[in-house]
Amino acid sequence: MTTGPISGAAASDGCAMLSDVETRSVSPVFVGRAGELTVLADALSRATAGEPQAFLVAGEAGVGKTRLIEEFRDEACGKDAVVALGGCVEIGADGLPFAPFSTALRSLRRSLPDEFAAAAAGREEELARLLPDLGGAARRQDRHDEEAMARLFELTLRLLERLAADRTVVLVLEDLHWADASTRHLLAYLFRTLRRGRLVVIATYRADDIHRRHPLRPLLAELDRLRTVQRIELPRFSRDEVARQMAGILATEPAPSLVDDIFERSDGNAFFVEELSVASYEGCCTGLTDSLRDLLLVRVEGLPEHAQRVARIVAEGGSTVEYPLLAAVVGLGEDELIEALRAAVGANILLATPDGDGYRFRHSLVREAVSDDLLPGERSRLNRRYAEALEAGPGLVPADQRATRLASYWYHAHAAAKALPAVLHASVEARRRHAYSEQLRLLERAMELWDDVPEDVRDGLRPVDYAEVYPPCGCDPATTPLRYLDLMAEAAVAGRLCAERDRALKIIKRALRLLEDEKDPLRSAWFWVQRSRLVQTQGRGDGWAELATAQDLVRGLPPSEVHAEVLAGVAGWCMLHEPGPDALAAAERAVEYARMVGAREIEMNARITLGGLMVDAGDVEAGLAEMYEVRDRVRELGVAPVVGRSHVNLPSALEGVGRSAEAVRILEEGLALCRKYGLLDSEAWVWGNLSESLYALGRWDEAAEAAGHAERVGHSAKPRGGGAARLAYLALARGDMDEAARRLADAHDHYGSHDPMPQQSLPLARIAIGVAAGGGRVLDARGEVERALGTGLPPGVQRYAWPLLLAAATTEADARGLPTADPGRAEALARIRRAAKTLATPAPVWTAYEQWLRAELLRADRRDTPEDWAAVMDAFAAVDRPYDVARVRHRTAESLLAAGERDRAAELLRPAHATAERLGARPLAEAVTQLAQRARLRLTGPDPAAAPAAVPAPAEELGLTPREQDVLRLVAAGRTNRQIAEELYISPKTASVHVSNILAKLGVTGRGEAAALAHRLRLFPVTA
To answer: Cys-Cys link to 849, which of 197, 319, 469, 802 (CB 3.0-4.6 A)?
Structure first.
C-alpha cells in the first residue's frame, strides 16, 4: 500500500518533538499590505461590473507576495468569485511549457465543469495543447504555421472570456520569473487583448531576480507601456510591521531589543523575519552567522538525517515533486520516508501540495539554499536517479510534464547518450503544444549534445517527421538515421514560428555552410526559401535573391514538394512585386508540380496566386472562378492558413474589378472564419480590405472603424500599414490634411522601405499627391508622381495606378494658371499620358477611370466639354461608387455652367452636395457649394426640371440612413447592442450611437417604442 502526502496538520499532531511555534512560523495575523489589498479588492469590484483587470505584483523573494495573494483569494472567494491559481514550474534551469496556465485551467475545469465544457465546445482539440485533460490531443500531422501559436492564444482568451461572462473569475499566475517563453508570450497576449468579461488576471514575480539579461525583462517593459496593466510593488516591512508580525508568530509581544535585532538582520523581509523569530525562540539567534542563506540551512540541518536527505532530493527534483516519484528516488523504506517527511513538514520546511499528490518547499528560498549546497557530483547523481525512476515509471508524473522533465533530468545528469533522445522527444511534445520557443531551446540543446553522443546511439535515432516540406529525399524515415541537418531544419522553423528570427537566421546560415560540401540541392533550396522568408520579415531585404538561388537549385530536378514550394514562393513574390506573364507562368508551374506530388496546401496557395494574377491579366471571370473554387475547398477541408488567405485575396480581386458589394460579403464571412480559427494577421488583412470596399461603397464611418481594427488586431506590421493607409484616404477625402499626413507617415513606418510592393507604394504615392495638393504644394505633388512613375508601371497594377494618375491629373488641372506650376507643366501632363497608355481596363470601373482621366487632362488644357464629362457620367452609371460619382457630377456641372446650361448643372450639383454632406467629404461639399453660389443656384428644395422622384421607402422618409435601418431591424428583433455589433461587425459603442440617433429621429424614448413603431409602420418584411 502506498501512503499519500502528509498534510501540515497531520505532521504537527503526530510529531511530539515539534513546538507550537515551529508549526506556526507563519503569522496568523496579516500584517501591512492594507493598501495593496484594497487596490486588489477595488479591482475585483470593477471586474464584477464587467471591466476586466490585469495586475503585476512584484517584490523581492520572501517579501510576502504569496501571502498577499492568499489573503486576496480568501476575500474574492467570500464574494463568490472563482479563483484559479497556477505557478510556473522550475526543473533545474528549465520551465515547463504553459505550466501556470495548464494548472489554472485545470482548476477552473474542476470548479466549473459544465461551464468549462460549454466554453471549450468545438475547440477541445486545440485547447488540449494547454490542457491535455480535455482529450482530443492535437494530431501530429497538424500544420504548424506562423499563426498557430496566435490561434491557441486567441482561443484561450475566448475561453476565459466565456467563463467570466456570467461570474467573476480570478486567474493568478505565480513565479513569473521562472516562466518559459511560451507562457510569457501567452500572458502578454492576454494582457494586450483582454477587453471584456468579469476577469482579474494577476501575475507575480520576484523583482530581485530580474537582472539586465533576464528573459522576463522585455515583457515587463512591454507591459509597462500598457495602460490596462497595473503594477503593485511590495516594499519590505517597517519596524512596526516587523513587531506585529513577530507578535503573531510568537503569540506574545516581543521585547523591543529583539525587534530591533531581527529588523536589522532581516531588513524587513517577511520571510526572514519568520525564520529569525523561530530561531530566536529556540535560543540560537545570537550564534547565527550574518548570512541569511546559512540561517535557512541551519533550519534544514536541524532535521533528522533521513529528513535532511529527503529535503536535498526534493530540492533537486523541481518546484514540486510527486510522492510516488520521490518514493522511487529516495531509496528509503516507506515507513522511513513517511517519518522523514513528517519531520520536514512539521518543521515547516516542506509542504504538501494543494492537490495533495506531492511536496514542495514552503518557500523557494529554502529550496534554492539547499540545492546550492549540493556538491556537483551529488547534483548530477540525483538527476540521474530521477531520470531512471521516471523512465521505469512513466506514470509517476503528469503526462503533460513527463517528456520535459525526463529531458531535463538526463541533461543535468550529464548523460549525453540518454539526454539526446529525451530532449528530442520533449521537442516534439513542445511543438505539438505550439510551444515553439521551448521547442527551439530543446533543439538547440540537442545540437549542443550531438557531438558528445556515441555514433551508434545517433544511428539509432529516427526523425518523427520532417519540418514542413523539408526533403526526406526519398528516404524511409523508419530506416534512415536522423541527421544533424534535420535538427537544424526543425530549429529554423521553430525559430521562425516563435519570432526568434535572428536565432533562426544563424541556424540557417550554419546549415547552408554545411551544405556547401554536400551535393544536396533540395535541402539547400529548402533552407534558401526559409532564409527568404526571414529576410523579408526582419526587414533586411525583399527576399528575391534567396528565392532566385532556390529556383536555380531546383531547376531541372524531378518534381518534389520543395520544387513546388519554391515555384509557389516565386509566383507569390512576383504577384506582389513584379506581376506579369512571368509570375503567371510560375504560378501555373507551381500548381502543376504541387498536384503531381500531392502537396495539397501548396497547391491551394498557388491556385489563389494564379487566380489573382489571371484577374490582373484581364481574364477576370476565370480567375475569380479559380479563387472561389479554392475558397470553397479549403473551407471544406478546414485548412486554416489557406482559409485566411482566400478570404483576403478573393475579395481583394473583387474590389480590384469594382465589385465592392460582393467583396464585402466575402470579407464579412472571412471575419467570422478568421475568428473561428484564431487567424489574427489574416483578420487584420480582412479588416483592411473591408475598409477599402466600404470606402468605395460610400460607407465611410464603417470604413474608418474597419481600418482601426486593421491597425489593432494583427501582430505583423504590414496589415497595420494597410489600416493606416485607409485612414489616410478617409482623412484626405474629408479635408483633414494634418491627419492624412500623420496616417501616411504611420503607413510608411509600418511598411518599411526594405520590401517595396506596388500594392503599397502606389496607394501611398496617391495619398502623398493629395496631401501635397491639399496644402497648395503643386511641385511636391509633381515630384511624388515622378517618383512613382520613374521606373514604369508593371502589368496588372491598374487598380492602384488609375487612381494615382487621376490624382496627378486633377492636381495639374486645379493648378492651371498658377505661375509657380507653369514650369514643367507640359512634361508632367505628358508623363501622365504616357503612363496611362500602359494601363489595362479589364473592368467597367477602370474604363470609367480612363474616361475620367481623359476628361481631367482635357480640363488641365482648358479643352474639356460637357460631352467629355457626359461620357464619364455614362461610364460611371454601371459603377457603385457614390463618392466618385459625386465628384464627377461636380465636374460635369462645372462644365455645363461654362456652357450656360444652368438647369442641368443644378440637377447634378444637388445630389453631389447631398452625397458629400452625408460622407463628410468637406472639400467636395465646399467646392460644390462655392460653384453653386457663383452660379446663384439653390442646392436645396425641389427641382422643377427634375423627373418625378420615386416614392421613398418609409424608413427613408423617417430620415434613417441605410446603416440605421439595419440597426433598427435588429432592435425590432430584440437584439442587444452587443448582439447588433457582432452581427453588423461594428463595435458596441458604435451600435449604441446608432440606436441613440434612431430614437431621436423616430421621436421615441426607448428601444421598445422604436420596435413597436417599426412593426406598426411595417418598415421591415416579416420573415417566416
So the answer is: 802
Rounded Cα gap, residues 274 and 362, in angstroms = 12
The residue among 652, 554, 571, 653 whose CA lies nearest residue 605 is 571
Check residue 956 and give its pLDDT.
Answer: 66
Which residues lie below 8 Å from residue 105, measured CB to CB, with a gap of 6+? 84, 86, 130, 131, 159
CA pair distance 201, 454, nearest whole angstrom: 48
**What does the block give as the cell for 380?**
548530477
Side chain identity, residue 600 = R
Burial of 186 from C-beta contacts in 10 A (0-12 / 13-18 / 19+): buried
The dihedral formed by the CA atoms of 165, 166, 172 and 178, expressed in degrees to the nearest 10: -30
Reply yes or no on whether the pLDDT at 19 is more than 60: no
- Residue 850 or residue 461, greater confidence: 850
- Asked if residue 520 lies in contact with residue 489, where contact means CB atoms within 8 angstroms, the answer is no
User: Which amino acid is residue 801, in one-letter code?
Assistant: A
Rounded alpha-carbon distances, angstroms, from residue 679 to 683, 689, 703, 713: 6, 15, 21, 10
Q: How far apart (Å, rounded) are the C-alpha atoms in residues 837 and 858?
A: 16
| Helix boundaries (H) for 697-841 | 700-713, 717-733, 737-751, 758-774, 778-789, 798-814, 825-837
Q: For 601-621, what is the mean pLDDT?
A: 94
In degrees rounded to 5, what are phi and psi of residue 639?
A: -85, 90
Q: How far apart are CA 329 and CA 335, in angstroms?
A: 15
> Which residues does 863 contact at the CB level (< 8 Å), separation at least 6?
none
Among left, alpha and beta (phi > 0; psi -120 to 50; other), residue 295 is alpha
d(C-alpha 457, C-alpha 423), whole Å: 14
Amino acid at 157: L
Average pLDDT value for residue range 114-142: 76
The string of pLDDT tens digits covering residues 527-543 is: 999 999 999 888 788 99
How many whole angstroms separate alpha carbon 696 and alpha carbon 354? 60
Give the C-alpha separation, 845 to 659, whole Å.
Answer: 9
Sheet holding 82-87, edge to edge: 82-87, 169-174, 199-206, 53-59, 229-233
Q: Cβ(602)–Cβ(570) under 8 Å?
A: no
CA distance 44 to 989: 24
Residue 14's alpha-carbon distances to 11, 18, 19, 152, in angstroms, are 5, 9, 12, 48
- How many residues are present in the chain? 1024
Supply the pLDDT for residue 818. 81
Say if CB 875 and CB 852 are below 8 A apart.
Answer: yes
pLDDT 10s digits, 70-109: 999 999 999 999 999 988 876 655 567 888 898 899 899 9
At residue 166, does pLDDT exceed 80? yes
Count CB-CB contacts under 10 A for residue 601: 20
